[in-house]
Write a structure and sequence with these properties.
By secondary structure, the chain is mainly α. The protein has a single domain, classed as Four Helix Bundle (Hemerythrin (Met), subunit A). It is built from six helices and two strands; from the N terminus they run ααααααββ. It has a two-stranded antiparallel ribbon with strand order 1-2. The radius of gyration is 22 Å and the shape is elongated. It starts with a helix and ends with a strand.
Length: 175
């Protein structure tokens, strides 16, 4: 068996030496070519919704029962954890599209793309650090603009439709 593995590896090396392998890019390191900013948009809306829920969470009174204080602390911790996860998911999804899908030609054609991605990274961190609805709304807006740019690189027109989520807002789709 070791001889077979060695000969297979040697065969691959020999083929690579004769015909140089070409570089391929994909979000999962398999050249499937599937990219979509939808998950980044859903994650941004989730950040917004968690801020809404935190804002709606009634703080227990000073003389509240221990179980009421514990329920408040538990909900606040869960909402915060979900917000943290989805802020990071926004960054991950955008980073993968930027790093794996966008080409030098895209960067030339859409020179604003680099700064757009940089701003999303910063805004996701800002939304993660606080509970200001305006910060989460700005993140949603920036991710929507990124989605529109992404679809433009594929030659698609876009449309916005209501997200139908409790956070409200819209989702950008290819038309």
């Amino acid at each position: 068996m070791p001889g077979r593995i060695w000969s297979t590896e040697l065969g691959h090396r020999l083929v690579d030496a004769l015909v140089a392998p070409r570089t391929v890019y994909a979000h999962c390191d398999i050249p499937c070519g599937i990219y979509d900013p939808h998950e980044a948009q859903i994650a941004a809306l989730t950040v917004l919704r968690m801020d809404q829920l935190i804002g709606e969470l009634p703080m227990p009174a000073m003389d509240a029962k221990p179980e009421d204080r514990a329920a408040y602390a538990s909900k606040l911790a869960r909402y915060t954890a979900v917000k943290e996860q989805h802020s990071e998911k926004v960054k991950q999804e955008v980073r993968v599209i930027w790093g794996d899908y966008f080409t030098p030609d895209h960067a030339k054609q859409y020179p604003q793309a680099h700064e757009m991605v940089w701003k999303i990274m910063k805004q996701a961190s800002k939304a993660r650090q606080g509970i200001a609805l305006a910060d989460a709304q700005e993140l949603v807006k920036q991710v929507q603009e990124f989605a529109e740019l992404f679809w433009k690189t594929k030659g698609a027109q876009t449309r916005r439709a209501p997200s139908m989520q409790k956070s409200g807002g819209e989702i950008v789709y290819p038309a």
